[in-house]
Write a structure and sequence with these properties.
OB fold (Dihydrolipoamide Acetyltransferase, E2P), alpha+beta, globular, 10 strands
């Protein structure tokens, strides 16, 4: 299965024949969801091969660092594969599932191979124990003595590290949303709006689907420096229904990253947020993490009192 998955990925991207190149950036924009930090995109004009003509209208994913660099140089590095242009970030994101799956399968294989060996070791320890154990004085553990790693501790560590990585973008976005430090308010013009999944909102109310509704506004605005930015911002159904193309919407943007914008919210926006499954997922992960940290702090405080 692992071999088939990796082979399929290599075949689709044809990485072995990839040629490193540079494309001209003709447009930049970001997409900002309700709960996460923005993702960045560039539209490139490769002008790679004369008989193919201009290579316009291709949207590629980039990192925030590449986005800032593209603003200065109007270029982005990538790979030319089978008459298509891909950034390294495109390839890494598409291969992320394969990488995670590969690591998981390798860990399972390692556990299967190691398990019989551990059973043999445990049996030998049992056989080597004396029939009449002598009473020994229990020694107190020193503070510097490391705690033994158990399967439960390893599992919890993996769970919370994975949960932290998954929910970190939600935590960062929430911090900037509710603590607007280093932000500037301005007006944005609604260039376009889209709600392909608006029907999901009503189906979800009747528990007929688990997909979250999606309502987006394409916003244009200028910063204090006169720079123009375009952001596709996901909004709640409440904001979407009361906004039309051409309207002016009050927003705020982070001074260090104008692509990271926030739309002014009302009580109606807050109430419809509870329809989203994604929100509950973040709440569970972050809540479990906070409870775990709290228990560890309490346990450490009790241990310090005893010693």
């Amino acid at each position: 299965m692992l071999y088939t998955t990796v082979t399929s990925f290599v075949t689709d991207y044809n990485i072995l024949n990839a040629e490193k190149t540079t494309a001209t950036v003709v447009e930049q924009h970001s997409k900002k969801s309700l709960f996460r930090t923005p993702t960045y995109f560039v539209t490139v004009d490769l002008n790679r091969i004369e008989e193919y003509g201009d290579y316009n209208g291709i949207e590629n994913r980039v990192t925030s660092f590449q986005m800032k660099k593209a603003e200065q140089t109007s270029e982005v590095n990538g790979y030319f594969i089978d008459d298509h242009f891909f950034t390294l970030y495109d390839i890494l994101l598409d291969s992320f599932v394969i990488i995670v799956l590969s690591i998981f399968l390798l860990l399972c294989l390692f556990a299967m191979l190691l398990y019989p060996f551990l059973i043999i070791v445990e049996k030998k320890k049992v056989q080597q124990k004396p029939k009449k154990p002598r009473r020994l004085k229990v020694k107190k553990k020193s503070r510097d003595e490391p705690e033994k790693m158990t399967f439960t501790k390893i599992f919890l560590t993996i769970f919370f590290v994975g949960g932290f990585m998954f929910s970190s973008l939600f935590v960062v976005n929430s911090f900037h949303k509710f603590i607007p430090l280093g932000q500037t308010k301005t007006d944005a013009i609604v260039k376009a709006k889209d709600s392909e999944l608006e029907v999901m909102y009503f189906l979800k109310m009747w528990r007929e689907t688990t997909a979250d509704p999606t309502f987006t506004l394409q916003l244009l605005f200028e910063t204090e420096d006169g720079e123009r930015y375009e952001v596709v911002k996901e909004v709640t159904r409440h904001t979407y229904r009361k906004t039309d193309v051409g309207d002016v919407l009050e927003i705020s943007y982070r001074n260090v990253n104008p692509y990271d914008i926030f739309v002014s919210s009302s009580l109606g926006d807050f109430l419809v947020l509870w329809v989203y499954t994604e929100l509950y997922l973040y709440i569970v992960i972050v809540g479990a993490g906070l409870i775990y940290v709290l228990f560890k702090i309490v346990a450490y405080a009790k241990k310090r009192k005893k010693t």
